[in-house]
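Data deposition worksheet. Section B asks for the primary sequence of the deposited chain exactly as it was used as input, without tags or linkers unless they were present during the calculation. Section C holds the resulting structure in token form. Section D is free text for depositor observations; keep each observation to a single sentence. Incomplete worksheets are returned to the depositor.
Section A, Depositor: J.P.
Section B:
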Amino acid sequence: MENSFNIISPRFRHINGMGVPQFDKKACSQSLSYYLKTVELIALTVALSNPVLLVGFDMERKFGINPPMSGFYSPVQAENLACLIPDNFQKLIARIKETDTNISSIQHWYDSLPDITEEELNAQFERQDEFFKEFTKS
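Section C:
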């Protein structure tokens, strides 16, 4: 079995008797290509294992500075995830977003929540300020 490193970067320099790989444009390009493909497949795996991440929710609008702990992406994060998914899976992803019952039930729950009021948001800020004051006391 051949050494795969020698296949993608066969040229070496010798410095003080030690072999050091020399920059090889082809090897760099191939490595970056594999890296990008890996990121795409990880994004696809994340999206398929938790499809609700494909739909962004503006949690601050509903919860202020105290949103639920995890499990949701903001609209920008959801868009970034979708952009990382390979083109040949985009139709499948679109179909999942439209038909997944878990996504639709979460969207219904989210839409049924009232927006946070300015008074509630200010109260959250005050509680946060009081909480952080405890850390600054000597």
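Section D:
The radius of gyration is 24 Å.
The chain has a mean pLDDT of 88.
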